[in-house]
Write a structure and sequence with these properties.
Layout: H1 11-17, H2 25-37, H3 54-60, H4 64-68, H5 74-92, E1 98-103, E2 109-116, H6 117-120, H7 130-144, E3 150-157, H8 164-185, E4 193-198, H9 216-219, E5 221-228, H10 230-238
Helix pairs in contact: 1-2, 2-5, 5-10, 7-8
């Protein structure tokens, strides 16, 4: 995943992240928060951009830190990391999804939930299967409607099979189908979902096996990202985030 640019004062955060491979979000949050909190004078604001990079991601990045005037200290990072660990654990309890701990564009803790398009949709279609609807209902009930202070981005991807135009449209329609079902049938607040984007067969996001051959089934997917909202950052800064 590509990252958007961050403030020069936050470069130490990026260096910390490179050595945090097996660490929990709570542990990473503490390190990130300490680095940010120690930045000269006012600290480093939380720059939360799009979780999927590239030109589209860069254009759509949102500067929450600048708007909120939040300096992320050690306690703040720890609390956000702990909250994301809980969200990840709740998501891992569900079936039909792969859950990974990740970071947003500023190195704040985030969670990526990947649904295989073969689970969600019939081949070449953007209508959710009954099994997919059941999985998304559980995902909403146990994760999104519990961790309502997480902002959400939903991203659709395609394999390199077919034309660019067809894959771009299909990936957008599939991502939108997930968003529509979550907000229309599962009680997820539309304001919680900050973005729904299809990336088609963008070569930056195709998935390859160890031999360098594209894993077309893995490339066809919908990813749901949960990351710290402005409200979560403010609550963590105040020490009230649970």
């Amino acid at each position: 995943m590509k990252k958007t640019k961050i403030f020069a004062g936050a470069m130490s955060i990026a260096l910390i992240l490179s050595s945090c491979g097996g660490m929990s979000n709570t542990g990473k949050g503490a390190l990130i928060g300490t680095a940010a909190g120690g930045a000269a004078g006012t600290g480093v604001g939380a720059l939360v951009g799009h979780l999927v990079g590239g030109s589209k991601g860069a254009k759509k990045g949102a500067i929450i830190g600048a708007a909120a005037g939040v300096a992320v200290g050690a306690t703040t990072g720890t609390l956000i990391g702990r909250k994301m660990d809980k969200a990840a654990a709740a998501a891992k309890a569900l079936e039909a999804a792969q859950v990974e701990k990740t970071t947003d564009s500023n190195g704040l803790d985030a969670v990526k939930v990947t649904f295989d398009n073969g689970i969600l949709f019939a081949g070449g279609k953007s209508t959710l299967t009954p099994a997919a609807q059941n999985s998304l209902k559980k995902f909403a009930a146990n994760v999104l409607n519990v961790y309502t202070d997480c902002d959400v981005s939903i991203c659709g991807f395609a394999s390199s099979d077919g034309s660019d135009a067809t894959n771009l449209t299909l990936s957008q329609n599939r991502a939108q189908a997930v968003t529509n079902y979550l907000t229309g049938s599962c009680g997820v607040a539309s304001k919680q979902i900050k973005d729904t984007t299809g990336y088609g067969e963008d070569p930056n996001y195709l998935i390859y096996d160890a031999n360098g051959k594209e894993n077309v089934n893995a490339s066809r997917r919908v990813e749901v990202y949960l990351y710290a909202s402005e409200a979560m950052i403010k609550a963590a800064e105040a020490g009230t985030l649970q």
